[in-house]
Amino acid sequence: MIEIKEVSKHYNGSHAPALAGFSLQVEQGDFLFLVGPSGAGKSTLIKLIFREQTPSAGAVLFDGKSIADFKQNELLNHRRRIGMVFQDYRLLKQKTVYENVAFALEVIGSSPKEIRQKVPAAIEKVGLKGKENSFPTELSGGEQQRVGIARAIVKEPLMILADEPTGNLDRENARQLMSLFEDINREGTTVIIATHAWDMVDQMQKRVIALENGRLVRDEQRGSYGREH
Ligand code: ADP
Ligand code: ADP
């Protein structure tokens, strides 16, 4: 599904590369954790897959095609099939739960009928039925992140990319969120999560990709976070 081939990424004005000769293959339906110290390159990897950044060398292939070569409509299509989830949720404060989730479909041009069908289903799936008319500030952190996940899955993406999704949550909320990602993955969606939640990683026994200084240092099928917490 995704093939990252010998990718290096140098940001302007920074001496060390964020990624260096990094290669990785991800299959449809994979669930993988990206782990490693701050600055190891996890966010950069996520941004390269979404094509928010482009590699300085090497290539990111999606179904065999280099995403750097995507024309405008292919790029829109690419982003449509990826759901992004952020540490700070990035909800629209002026919009209700329902409107936040609906907005994700509006921007990709879904019909009102599609929106009426899909939004309640996504809200129900993340366990927020009854909160449709709440505003983000009326929700707990865990609930806000559930809205973030509903917004990502309502597009029925092939893949979810989550950067520290539980970084602002307590353990119980983190556990529930991870279990939600597992449910989504069970239905066939590829899930990639950059995280420092070592207890979750150790417990869940998913594929673990460990990065250090922009390099892949470990790729294990039923991996653990690693000794350094
Ligand atoms: P992680 O997500 O593992 O913390 P990042 O991908 O955010 O790692 O960062 C990798 C390296 O790239 C770090 O040294 C970071 O400071 C640098 N970096 C990230 N984004 C930028 C940027 N926009 N400009 C310059 N340097 C950056
Ligand atoms: P947590 O203990 O997980 O941080 P909160 O105590 O913030 O959760 O919220 C508990 C419940 O109360 C949640 O269902 C949330 O939606 C609701 N709630 C919190 N603040 C408000 C508010 N200002 N208006 C309406 N409902 C609220």
TrEMBL record:
<dbReference type="InterPro" id="IPR005286">
    <property type="entry name" value="Cell_div_FtsE"/>
</dbReference>
<keyword id="KW-0472">Membrane</keyword>
<dbReference type="GO" id="GO:0022857">
    <property type="term" value="F:transmembrane transporter activity"/>
</dbReference>
<keyword id="KW-0132">Cell division</keyword>
<dbReference type="InterPro" id="IPR003593">
    <property type="entry name" value="AAA+_ATPase"/>
</dbReference>
<dbReference type="GO" id="GO:0005886">
    <property type="term" value="C:plasma membrane"/>
</dbReference>
<dbReference type="GO" id="GO:0051301">
    <property type="term" value="P:cell division"/>
</dbReference>
<comment type="function">
    <text>Part of the ABC transporter FtsEX involved in cellular division.</text>
</comment>
<keyword id="KW-1003">Cell membrane</keyword>
<dbReference type="InterPro" id="IPR015854">
    <property type="entry name" value="ABC_transpr_LolD-like"/>
</dbReference>
<dbReference type="InterPro" id="IPR003439">
    <property type="entry name" value="ABC_transporter-like_ATP-bd"/>
</dbReference>
<comment type="similarity">
    <text>Belongs to the ABC transporter superfamily.</text>
</comment>
<keyword id="KW-0547">Nucleotide-binding</keyword>
<comment type="subunit">
    <text>Homodimer. Forms a membrane-associated complex with FtsX.</text>
</comment>
<dbReference type="InterPro" id="IPR017871">
    <property type="entry name" value="ABC_transporter-like_CS"/>
</dbReference>
<keyword id="KW-0067">ATP-binding</keyword>
<dbReference type="Pfam" id="PF00005">
    <property type="entry name" value="ABC_tran"/>
</dbReference>
<dbReference type="GO" id="GO:0016887">
    <property type="term" value="F:ATP hydrolysis activity"/>
</dbReference>
<feature type="domain" description="ABC transporter">
    <location>
        <begin position="2"/>
        <end position="229"/>
    </location>
</feature>
<dbReference type="InterPro" id="IPR027417">
    <property type="entry name" value="P-loop_NTPase"/>
</dbReference>
<protein>
    <recommendedName>
        <fullName>Cell division ATP-binding protein FtsE</fullName>
    </recommendedName>
</protein>
<dbReference type="GO" id="GO:0005524">
    <property type="term" value="F:ATP binding"/>
</dbReference>
<keyword id="KW-0131">Cell cycle</keyword>
